[in-house]
Amino acid sequence: MTTATGNLPEWLRPAPAATGTAPRTIRVAVLARTSTDDQQDPTLSIPRQYANCERALLPNMQIVLVFYDVESSRKELDQRGSSTAWKKFDIPIRRDGGIGDLLAEATAPDRRFDVVMCESIDRIARFTYQGTKIEHDLELAGVPLLASDEPIIFDGQTGGRKRKRASQILLRRTKQGVAEWYIVEMLEKSWDGFETHTTQGWNVGKPPYGFKAERHKHPVPAKRAEGKHKTKLAVDRRRGPVVKKIYSWRVNDKLSYRAIADRLNIDLHRYPPPQPVDPERAVGRWTVSAVREILFNPKYTGHMAWNRRSTKDKLHPGKNNPVEEWVVSAEQTHPELVSIETFLAAQNIAASRRRSRADTTPGAPNRHRQTRRAYRLRSYVWCAACTRRMFGRTVFDYTYYTCQPRDRIAPDGHPRTLSLDEDKLLDLITGFFNAHIFGTERLQLASTSANIAAQQAAEEHQQQINAVRYALADIESRQKRLFKILEENDDEEGRLYQQAKQRQEELDTEHTLKTAELDHLERTMPSGGAGAIDLLDHLPETKISLLDMPADRLRPFLDAFAVQLRYDLHANSVKIQATVSAEAVPHLTRLAHNASNRQPIQAHTPHARRPRPPAITSANTAAPANDGGDSGFLQIYDMPRRGHYLQGKRLPVPRRLLPPGAFSCPWGCWGRVPGS
Q1: Rounded-to-integer distance, Cα 521 and Cα 505, Å
Q2: Phi/psi at 459 (5° precision)
Q3: Residue 637 half-sphere exposure, CB side, CA atoms within 13 Å?
Q4: If both were cysteines, with which of 178, 482, 490, 664 could 670 make a disulfide (CB 3.0 to 4.6 Å apart)?
Q5: Residue 124 and residue 133: Cα distance in Å, rounded?
Q6: Alpha carbon 364 to its chain's center
Q7: How far is CA 148 from CA 60, 163, 246, 384, in A?
């Protein structure tokens, strides 16, 4: 016979335990955690959690081990337990390890505990996934996870039946959900507070190099009574000029981070190095990272910035955030050290110098161990088909700049080896500057093509706008077809509706993105940029010759104008680009005078120099690039093509200097035929 409660019949029940036998002691491991050391007092929180667990013990339970950590619960599981912040405090509870040690011992065959107890389930982790993952791992190891604020019921206390856990699980998951909601809401509110804090011009953290902290009384009376304050930025009279000098070297001289750091380290009294937050990390000199930090910090423009680094990133703490995630004040909130134009120009230098081995001293060989000499046009010459820099090489005392795809996939029609003569390139650059930069007709040349360039840019921009409008119309058409399907079909089970709803949400997202893209394109319609042409009028009218200019003067000259040469294999032409900015006009003027007042050239040369054609005449006049209407920036292009030497003789490379299977072009380039 069975009872109404569903217990076993009497003949199957186990024999009662012998009278006087003590129940088995259940060994308990307490798991505690307190937040970061600057948010709570671990000397109070850990003992409180231990006491609450001790009060919740059943008569046959005994605490044998205590595991606790002083760290944020929002860390990833594999990073939990690694903090050593607990060592800073005199916590009156013996520590047997952290959560990592507890989880490792739970799976050991000789573990020293039977159950794990915490004060509350949200002490394990603030995020539901992490809490349930820890609970699940412990259960797989046969270790229950208990909480002092929940009923403690074991299977043996229910008359042999498996204990009912449904209500307990509901309560536990509710508490975990509330804990995660609380932390997420606090993070969102904190983010909004920091945004407002930034727009009002208050600085967070240590002032950047060149500024000093200007203290203001805290607006909250309670915090003001505690001596707390808020800070804004003021210019440091000693270090502020150093920042301006760094930007000048970067924008005007196009120096690399390493070259700037080396110049600063020459006189550390005049250019005092920055001091990190932790004095023990100070190296006593300028480093590449310190220079880069100054050149990429928008606070020097007078605008407050925040969230440039992800200090709370779980996997990569301290990494640089994308610019789109920065919070920058719309108005200036403190004195500027550099203008916005100078700051943006410094960012453009970084893009153009990427993967370029820079030299500290202009014209000196770079530091690579295989370097044997310095090439005067190194890093300026590009192959348009490969979109890569061409490297210098010497063949029988002749200098060439070569493109060899080698293991890379070569573009269609690209020879295995393609080389350009250095002397011919210098002739082209000289003619370009004498005609388009320093020539008497430079304004007329630029004005003639300004309208054409602006029209081409406007047409390309309008094509982008039309493409986005077409995409928007297509999305709206698909949305209408989706509604029509719902109208014409019955959907008793509701599956079609759910699918249509999901698809409608996807289309709404696409429509929102395309609408934002269209709005951006319409607001950034390019202008003619004709005002930038007037910058040329501030430069002197002179004649220069770059062919015999020494490298230590040539490279600063080319760097100042951001010269780039791109060889188009298919058109057999070289595109020359130079940039003139309003900030750099005084510096460019000095370089122009130095280039025109060159010293007499010595008669002897290492080898017989080949005759050079007279100044070139280009069929393509200078064209200012689209600058978004900014009149302080001008890019000038010229594209000399084969046959533009009107009076000179076409001079191919001597056949005796060409390797077998190679070809030459009329103005100094040669290449090797694939497969030869």
Answers
A1: 24
A2: -65, -45
A3: 16
A4: 664
A5: 10
A6: 31
A7: 15, 18, 61, 71
Per-residue pLDDT tens digits for 59-118: 889 999 999 999 887 777 778 888 888 888 889 999 999 999 999 999 999 999 999 999
**Token pair listed for 293:** 């930090």
Long-range contacts of 326-332 (CB under 8 A, 24+ apart): 326/298, 327/194, 327/195, 327/198, 328/198, 328/298, 328/303, 328/304, 329/198, 329/199, 329/200, 329/201, 329/303, 329/304, 329/305, 330/199, 330/303, 331/303, 332/301, 332/302, 332/303
- Classify residue 417 as exposed, middle or buried by CB count within 10 Å of its CB (0-12, 13-18, 19+): buried
Residues 370 and 355: beta-carbon distance below 8 Å: no
pLDDT in tens, 162-209: 566 788 888 888 888 888 888 888 888 888 888 899 999 999 889 999
8 Å CB contact between 296 and 279: no
Whole-angstrom distance, CA of residue 650 vs CA of residue 652 = 6
Distances (CA, A) of 284 to 241, 276, 481: 19, 10, 69
620 and 639 in contact (C-beta within 8 Å)?
yes
Confirm if 398 and 657 have CB atoms less than 8 A apart.
yes
Distance between CA atoms of 80 and 72, rounded to whole angstroms?
8
Contact assessment for residue 366 and residue 259, using Cβ atoms and an 8 Å cutoff: no
DSSP state letter for 322: P
**381-383/305-306 β-pairing:** unpaired
Q: Beta-carbon neighbour count of residue 529 at 10 Å? A: 23
- Homologous superfamily assigned to 23-184: Resolvase, N-terminal catalytic domain (3.40.50.1390)
**H helix or E strand, kind and range, residue 357:** none
3-state SS of 144-165 is CEEECCCCCCCHHHCCCCCCCC
Residue 393 main-chain phi, psi, to 5 deg? -155, 155
Amino acid in position 571? A
26-34 and 115-118 beta bridge pairing: parallel
Distances from the Cα of 633 to the Cα of 260, 341, 391, 495, 536, angstroms: 24, 9, 29, 59, 10
Residue 37 has pLDDT above 60, yes or no: no
Residue 60 has which token pair? 């046959």
The two three-digit tokens of residue 82, written as one number: 């690694």
Helix, strand or coil for residue 377? coil
| HSE of 237, CA atoms in CB hemisphere, 13 A | 0
Rounded CA separation 534/540 (Å): 13
- In the prediction, which pLDDT does 202 show? 94
Helix, strand, or coil (residue 393): strand
Token pair for 157: 């206390």
> Residue 159 corresponds to which tokens in the numbers above?
């008359």
Token pair for 537: 């009028």
Closest-CA residue to 314 (of 604, 118, 77, 532): 77
